[in-house]
Amino acid sequence: MKDSHHEDYVEDIGGTEKCAFHHEGIINSFSPDEQKKIIRRVDLRLVVTVGCLFIVSLLDRTNLGAASIAGMQKELDMNASNNGYSITSLVFFVTYTIFQIPATAMIRKLGPRLFLAGIVTLWGAVMIGFGFVPNWESMAGLRAILGALEAGLFPGSVYLLSTWYPRYELQKRNAAFFLIGSVASGFGGILAYGLSHMNGLGGKSGWRWIFIMEGILTCVLGLGSYIFLVDFPEKSPKSWKFLNQTEASFVITTIERDRADTVVEPFSIQKYLANGKDSKVWAYAILYMLATMPSYAIAYFLPIILQESMHFSVVKAQCLVAPPYAFAGVLMYMQAVYSDKWRLRGPIVIGNALMALLGLALLGFLKDPAPRYFGVFLATAAANANCPALVSWQSNNIRGQWKRAFTSATSIGGGSIGGIIATTVFRGQDAPDYLPGLLAAMLANGLTVVIAGLLTLKFNRANKRVDTGGKPIEGQIGFKYTY
How far apart are CA 37 and CA 56, in angstroms? Predict the structure, then answer.
């Protein structure tokens, strides 16, 4: 093994078959306990850091609901005639979708530390600006800028995680990443309620302080993340320092043995975009769109439904958002542990979609608040649990650094289209029950069952062809799809 820079080591062993990374030798140089300690250090530096950034990402994109019931719609003259609230919610996803693909190319070029820390700090400054807008049109413009900046965090984080872990250790990390962000953001309503009590301070309304204080928090985390974020694993250990040369080689070897794609091919815009010819890339994008549509609808409109349709007070409406997200976190991580253990993805996705169907039906068609709120638990948990399940499924079945970057972008881009759909089908004139929006969310979950089922059958047949000597999957002998 070389003692020189790690990138030289990767280049040398990546270009020859005779070394084959000396997989077993490098891995067996560490005891099982030592291997676990290395992975725990990676988890703490990587999963926890991007999870904390995901907290402020979700808070900053979904705090409109809390600000709305704290007086924002009335003060900015958002009403059913101008659809100001829906438009302000919608424009975020337009720019969020457009900038997904270039953002994942940029993170590969600039590196995760500079890119992720930079965009988080910038959008924190934009969030502070939300607290000073004179009208809803100005807020809509800032939301468009926010969408462009946030476009890089989620796909960039998903892609970064996929470069550090083998395929069947990935969903637990994706779930932990989602869990940190989702559960914490579930308490965003409680945080917003507390911040709204700053009403009158400095002559500003309480809802304005929600944006200002959360924007300051975002800036602090963005600047601090530069210290803790790590680069891609094939880079020199000098760029992240928390692993030594031998430990870094262990990480690289583990990934190479799993999918043989640690060496990064030179970037070509033509080859990068040519990855769009693969039908499964778009199947995953559609599935993620269908999964996030109910998730965003719940995030944006649940406080309003709890207050206007289920007749809870403002305090209760803001606080009752938290328990379903806590339940979602527990379900999400339990599923991830067993999904990795069983090496199973599709049936988990289908099961979640069926659970969401039941929850949305309870919320939409019953009158008693108790079973309707139980339906919120089911729908929230299922919609959020399917997010890490789907990004893990697509990461498992894609090889090549740039192809995985492209697929992360298209998948999360599909998710942002789900946000666009959610903000357009939940219309002001349908208040307080928003039945058309709930029906659209139910349809999305029904389609998820169908598409995920067909994709599972497709992958099963492809694996059987490999078993009988057919064409290798993803150009790699011995590689099989996860279904």
Answer: 29
Structure confidence at residue 24 (pLDDT): 61
Q: Collapsing DSSP states into helix, strand and coil, what is residue 219?
A: helix
Q: Let me know if residue 212 belongs to a domain.
A: yes
Which residue in 364, 263, 265, 246 sits closest to 16, CA to CA? 263
Q: How many CB atoms lie within 10 A of CB 163?
A: 22
Please tell me the distance from the alpha carbon of residue 353 to that of residue 345, in angstroms, as a whole number: 13
Do the domain assignments include residue 467?
A: no
Residue 312: how many CB atoms within 10 A of its CB?
18
CA–CA distances in Å: residue 116 to residues 204, 224, 395: 31, 11, 20
User: 283 is written with which tokens?
Assistant: 């199947």
The C-alpha angle with vertex 460 and arms to 458 and 462, in degrees rounded to 5, equals 70
Q: Which helix (H) or strand (E) holds 371?
A: helix 369-396
pLDDT at residue 319, rounded to an integer: 81
Domain boundaries, position 247: 31-262+281-460
477: left (phi > 0), else alpha (psi -120 to 50), else beta?
Answer: beta
Record the tokens describing residue 7, joined without a space.
């990138």
Q: How many domains are there within the chain? A: 1
> Would you say 392 and 288 are in contact if contact means Cβ atoms under 8 Å apart?
no
Positions in the chain short of pLDDT 70: 1-25, 183-186, 236-240
Give CA separation, 256 vs 263, 265, 399, in Å. Answer: 9, 14, 11
Longest dimension (CA), the chain: 74
- C-alpha to C-alpha distance for 111 and 282, rounded to whole angstroms: 26
pLDDT tens digit sequence for 251-302:
888 888 888 777 778 888 898 899 999 999 999 999 999 999 998 888 778 8
Confidence (pLDDT) at 238: 58
Contact 422, 297 (CB under 8 A): yes
247 is a domain residue: yes
Which residues, at least 6 apart from 463, have a Cβ–Cβ distance to it below 8 Å?
473, 480, 481, 483
Residue 236 sits in a domain of what CATH number?
1.20.1250.20
Residue 229 token pair: 């974020």
> How far is residue 427's CA from residue 425's CA, in Å, rounded to a whole number?
6
In a domain, 229, yes or no: yes
Identify the burial level of 203 via C-beta atoms within 10 angstroms of its C-beta, where 0-12 means exposed, 13-18 middle and 19 or more buried. Answer: exposed
| Exposure class string for 166-196: b at 16+ Cβ within 10 A, else e | bbbebbbbbbbbbbbbbbbbbbbbbbbbebb
pLDDT at 239: 54
Q: Of 286, 281, 210, 234, whose CA–CA distance to 449 is shortest?
A: 286
